[in-house]
Design brief:
76% helix; single chain; mainly alpha
Length: 108
């Protein structure tokens, strides 16, 4: 898969995640098991996809927090008590909209 295809897929997954929670607040999100699992799964997919980007692409787009994206799966899923819902929510509400915007600039 090319860098362009990977970035397009990351954008698509990110937009999907944001759409899942657009009408929710943290309390309703945290009580909706299906939404939580869908978001956590797709965030994990983003993490995996980002690992497939070439070093050249990453170095050309230093405005993207690549290391944070790579560690996303660990921060979200590898918690001894299960998925860290606060981190998932903060990632979705605070980070994904900005990531989508920046990634769209990369491929424009």
């Amino acid at each position: 898969m090319s860098d362009l295809e990977i970035v397009e897929k990351i954008i698509s997954l990110s937009e999907k995640i944001v759409s899942y929670v657009q009408t929710l607040n943290y309390d309703s999100f945290s009580k909706n098991e299906i939404t939580v699992e869908a978001c956590a799964f797709n965030l994990g997919q983003i993490d995996e996809l980002a690992h497939g980007l070439t070093e050249e692409f990453q170095n050309t787009h230093l405005n993207i927090p690549w290391k944070s994206i790579y560690g996303m799966c660990n921060r979200i899923i590898h918690d001894y008590d299960g998925v860290n819902l606060k981190v998932v929510w903060e990632t979705i509400s605070d980070d994904l909209p900005q990531l989508i915007e920046e990634l769209k600039k990369c491929i424009a």
